[in-house]
Amino acid sequence: MACSSAAPKFTVRRRPAVLVAPAAPTPHELKHLSDIDQPDFLRFQVPVIQFYRRNESMGGKDPVQVIREALTKALVPYYPFAGRLREHHGWKLAVDCTGEGVMFVEADADVGLEHFGDPLLPPFPCLEELIFDVPGSSAILNTPLLLFQFLGAVAELARGAQSPSVLPVWKRDLLEGRNQQQTALVHDKSDEVSGRSSDDADTKASSTMLPLIDNAALRVRSFFFGPREIAAIRAQLPPDLQKRATKFDTIAGWMWKFRTVALAPDPDEVMQLMVVVNARGRNTAEVGIPVGYYGNAIAIPAAISTAGELCTNPLSYAVELVRKAKNQVDMEYMRSTADVIALRRGQSPPITAGMYYLADETKARFHDLDFGWGKPVYAGPAEAVPFPSFPLLFSFLLASKNANGEDGIVVPIRLPGPAMDRLVEEMSNCAHQPM
């Protein structure tokens, strides 16, 4: 994103990128990833940005020195992050624990937080100045690695802890495919590009492949769901569903339904809400996923409906479909997902025009990362909508505040202009409904 004429003017002074290695010797070994870690559609980088206010109680401590020292310590128990991803057996990934270290760039910028808007939300102006893309570091293989649980350990050590409160657990074999040749438990609805089978509807439907989108014709807007908005949405649900539906179910159901209304697709178009679910802490029967496991533990079940059914049924229809899809995820579902990935040997399912991915970034807890200067005023994806190749298909739920300082959830979304106008109108109607 280039700086516009209205963007803040500031200068960034960068030092050369360096590698920060573990503070002590670490094992040199090859650690295999699980099948859940393998899909091609996970092989991307999402830039994350965190803004912190100056904290006088830190006594002028240099954040570069504090964070860099904490990095070296955290890389001892989390030594795979000092290694590099390699490919073996044609497509599977493993971490080559080389001890090389993570990439670190020190920089100074003569700009204040007030120049980036209130509240702080993506897209941020002059992002390419704030997040420097070191040449050669954008690939997935053979480049430095990073993950949130590791950053949590760095933050604890930066605040003076002697060791991380949660020690890392590898155990990627828990989510290995079982080489089952029979039909897996997980029925991947994203394969259904012509026709569908669902317990929730009998209508035959079709779903077109995603056409090329002119990004310049799309608009980005963030929708805020605070206490008033969520209460207004819940008021449209039957009393029993009000009790059963979570905040995520409620927001996701509303976004899915009214995004579809705004796009006005053919009534027979298959609409799929792909819900990114973290399996940690859920019903993980039998073995379970242990505390400290820092591999991918996500599943992406699909809520599915025709556009016509989604638009004409009450909001409870969409919310219930979201709730049912999300609640499928248990340990057996995760193992079956691994089976499907292993059988595909890394091949990704097709992307269709009716898909919409929604991920609750608040569960990643980036907004809790305190390196000694307090919690960030913003922490999360640096871009409003990731994956420029498919700008219509992805949204995050982000923790935020509105102009009155109320806590809530904000959902950035990118849509064509007329569709965005319709969605803004629906949101206005929701916000003004009596509670």
Automatic annotation (TrEMBL):
Listed Basic and acidic residues bias regions: 186-203
Spans annotated as Disordered: 181-205
GO molecular function: acyltransferase activity, transferring groups other than amino-acyl groups
Keyword Transferase found: yes
Keywords in alphabetical order: Transferase
Keyword Endoplasmic reticulum part of the UniProt annotation: no
UniProt-listed Pfam families: Transferase
InterPro entries reported in the protein's UniProt record: CAT-like_dom_sf, Plant_acyltransferase
Family assignment from sequence similarity: Belongs to the plant acyltransferase family.
Protein name (database record): Benzyl alcohol O-benzoyltransferase
Species of provenance: Panicum virgatum (Blackwell switchgrass)
